[in-house]
Write a structure and sequence with these properties.
Its cofactor is Mg(2+). Belongs to the XPG/RAD2 endonuclease family. FEN1 subfamily. It holds the Pfam family XPG_N. It comes from Euplotes crassus. The protein has two domains: 3-219, Rossmann fold; 222-296, Orthogonal Bundle (DNA polymerase, domain 1), CATH 1.10.150. The protein is built from 17 helices and nine strands. The strands form two sheets. It has a seven-stranded mixed β-sheet with strand order 1-9-8-7-2-5-6, sandwiched between helices. The protein has a two-stranded antiparallel ribbon with strand order 3-4. Helix 4 packs antiparallel against helix 5 (125-134). It is an alpha/beta fold. The two termini are 36 Å apart. It binds a DNA duplex through residues 41-42, 45-46, 48, 50, 57-61, 65-75, 78, 200, 202, 323, 327-330, 333.
DNA sequence: CACGGCCA
DNA sequence: TGGCCGTGG
């Protein structure tokens, strides 16, 4: 999932690219959130282990999972409370390149489910719980419920043509958002200038990773970085056995491209042929060129084809109806959420105004806003 | 995921 | 006061 062990490589080779921050430092900023990733995490974190009864989840009366709705609602409110404007980005059609990876995941989930059932029968509850986490599948219905809730909240939402992380990265490049919020490191490979991770654990600080500083620390160009990521192991092709993040880093540093690295590896293989078996197994279909092309030019919607983002107030009646009547939320919970929405209304703008005055003269700042707004939004103000 | 309750 | 646990949905 994502890029195998890229984070440990960054920690080691480019520690300056990582900054520990709090939510307050993001006040006034917009962030693009990888919704698919969050949904999965929320579903896991709302599972509970009941001794003797196995794993229970949050469900509505029809048995549909609802933990992701709880999570998305709470996270949205927490961000708004800090004056941060969320844009939820959903996966579209999976790219053809990912078919193999998805098939593999499906198989693993099936295995996990079978193991879980077996462990349950044996009464090994906590081991079963681990398997239950692995067997979670996000269905189209769950995604639709999440989208519906966000629409009723009047919180911006983007349906990506393909990969959500790629769409997030594009939005950050287009300056529609400050950063991509995800645990999936390939957002960096797609070129997000800033990645935020660690929103899950309340205890640990959020980590802000800056792409330019990663490249600086790695002493690599973006092209080299993409090749490094593919060698480390990405979702779009199988990788070379015998090559992990450490060797990938060494070889790309030395030889710059996968083509060159492959030549070297083949030489090394023939050298060691007589001694033992082949050291490096290059997959039959090593789709590094296709993967590289996809990282460079994924299917995304660019700024000019996106609707302007607006952070409005919830459709109170319809939202209440949906969450209480269909999704089993208590009225108290929904009312509290609505209250929080009201409390946080205008918070981002208010705090932005504070920094606006702190920053200096009106003249200089309005110049900046003007140039930004003038890019494509025909007279309409992009800020509100 | 957040919240309330319980206990050191 | 702050960490852990059960519940909610």
């Amino acid at each position: 999932m994502g890029i195998h062990k890229l984070m440990s490589l960054i920690d080691e080779k480019a520690p300056d690219a990582v900054k520990e921050i709090t939510l307050d430092t993001l006040t006034g900023k917009k962030v693009a959130i990888d919704a698919s990733m969050c949904i999965y995490q929320f579903l896991i974190s709302t599972q509970t282990l009941k001794q003797g009864f196995g794993v229970t989840e949050l469900r509505d009366k029809d048995g549909n999972l609802t933990g992701h709705l709880v999570g998305i609602l709470n996270r949205t409110l927490s961000l708004l409370d800090h004056g941060i404007k969320p844009i939820w980005v959903f996966d579209g059609k999976a790219p053809q390149l990912k078919a193999g990876e998805l098939e593999e995941r499906k198989e693993k989930k099936k295995e996990a489910k079978e193991k879980m059932d077996q462990l349950m029968e044996e009464g090994k509850d906590d081991e079963a719980a681990k398997m239950a986490q692995r067997s979670i599948r996000v269905t189209p219905e769950m995604t639709e419920d999440a989208k519906k809730m966000l629409r009723l909240c009047n919180i911006p939402m983007v349906e990506a043509p393909s990969e959500a992380e790629a769409q997030c990265a594009q939005m950050v490049k287009d300056e529609l958002a400050f950063a991509t919020v995800t645990e999936d490191m390939d957002a960096l490979t797609f070129g997000t200038t800033v990645l935020l991770r660690g929103f899950g654990n309340r205890k640990d600080p959020i980590r802000q990773i800056t792409l330019s500083k990663v490249l600086e620390g790695f002493e690599m160009s973006m092209d080299e970085f993409i090749d490094l990521c593919i060698l480390c192991g990405c979702d779009y092709t199988s990788s070379i056995s015998g090559i992990g993040p450490v060797k990938a880093f060494k070889y790309i540093t030395q030889y710059k491209t996968i083509e060159e690295v492959l030549e070297v590896l083949e030489k090394e293989n023939t050298k060691s042929k007589s001694a033992t078996k082949k050291r490096y197994q290059i997959p039959e279909e090593f789709l590094y060129k296709e993967s590289r092309a996809f990282f460079n030019e994924p299917d995304v919607t660019k700024k000019e084809d996106l609707e302007e983002f607006k952070w409005g107030t919830p459709e109170e009646e319809a939202l209440t109806k949906f969450l209480t009547e269909e999704k089993g939320f208590s009225e108290v919970t929904v009312n509290n959420a609505l209250k929080k929405f009201k409390k946080t209304k205008g918070k981002a703008n208010q705090k932005r105004l504070d920094t606006f005055f702190k920053m200096g003269t009106k003249k200089s700042t309005s110049k900046v806003t003007k140039t930004k707004a003038a890019v494509k939004s025909k007279g309409k103000k992009s800020f509100k």
